[in-house]
Amino acid sequence: MRLRLLALVASSLLMTTAACDSTSDEGPAPSPDAGTQGPGPTEGDVAPADRTACAGLTVAAGTYDWTVEHDGRTRAYRVHVPTGYDATRPTPVVFSFHGFGSNEVEQEALSAFSTLGDTEGFISVYPRGLNFPEIFGQGEPDSRGWNGVACCGPAQVANVDDVGFVDALLADLDTRVCTDPRRVFASGFSNGGFFSYRLACERAQRFAAIAPVAGMQGLADCAPSRPVPVLHFHGSDDPTILYGGGNNIPAGRPYPSAAESVRRFAERNGCTGPDQQTYQQGNATCVAATGCTPESASAVLCTVLGGKHSWPGQTAYNEDTADVNATQEMWRFFQARPRP
Question: Which of 53, 65, 167, 285 is a good FRET partner for 261, with 20 to 30 A between their CA atoms?
Answer without folding.
Answer: 167
